[in-house]
Amino acid sequence: MVDPNCIFCKIAQGDIPAEKIYDDGTVFAIRDINPKAPTHVLVIPYEHVEALSDADPALVAAAARCFEVAPAIARDLGVAETGYRLVANQGPDSGQEVPHFHLHILAGRRLGSMG
Ligand code: 5GP
Ligand code: ZN
To answer: What is the residue range of 92's domain?
Structure first.
């Protein structure tokens, strides 16, 4: 499913240009436009899946694939040894901006404690 109003669907479809630093046809990765760390990459499923609470099989598969490929992307980015943080924001209190499931890879500095 594609949501024509969703910014990540537009990037997935190529309607908004973005350099895909990883792409396997199921998920892709782009650098965050507003990086919160020296390395800040978003891993995004092509399919428009929204909240984790939906727990539908498409979302579970897409989320699992994001976690599956994140270590290889981190290795390619050169941050596997120094470490990285994976973040999936859900809902208003998390500050989620884009309601299309995605995983943040944050790295390149000491990120400090959560919260
Ligand atoms: P969220 O807050 O939903 O977890 O994360 C959405 C992220 O997408 C934000 O960190 C924001 O900077 C990033 N973002 C929003 N629009 C664009 C865009 O058009 N291109 C890229 N590369 N990143 C975007
Ligand atoms: Zn979408």
So the answer is: 7-107
